[in-house]
Design a protein that fits this description.
single chain, 114 residues, mainly alpha, 68% helix, 0% strand, elongated
Length: 114
């Protein structure tokens, strides 16, 4: 049970903190942070708006795409594994994961990199 004990009502002991300590909960957040750092690093080095378009997207774009797309199966596993055990905590963590991914998409959109 991944270190979490079930109570009589099916609620997971430890609450939100216990769910967030699961790798499938915090890994997408780390991946989003790494993707955002890649975007901001690219903007710091090459600039954002009016940048010369490359024939290929470049390594930074490919790394960003892999990090963002790689979150989807991890988030799906997290929902599958924890939604029935601790629905409130799971949905809270999922909201953080989705918000972090959307922050990345927004950064790419508003900086004109997409």
């Amino acid at each position: 049970m991944d270190g979490l004990s079930s109570r009589a009502g099916g609620d997971v002991g430890g609450g939100f903190g216990a769910v967030t300590r699961q790798a499938s909960a915090f890994l997408p957040l780390i991946m989003s942070a790494a993707a955002l750092l890649a975007v901001l690093g690219h903007v710091a080095v090459y600039g954002a708006v009016g940048a010369v378009r490359e024939a290929d997207e470049g390594a930074t774009a490919h790394i960003w795409q892999i990090l963002i797309a790689g979150q989807v199966p991890v988030m799906a596993y997290f929902l599958f594994r924890w939604l029935r055990r601790a629905p409130r905590q799971t949905l809270g963590v999922f909201a953080l994961q989705a918000g972090a991914a959307l922050a990345n998409v927004a950064a790419v959109f508003f900086l004109g990199l997409g």
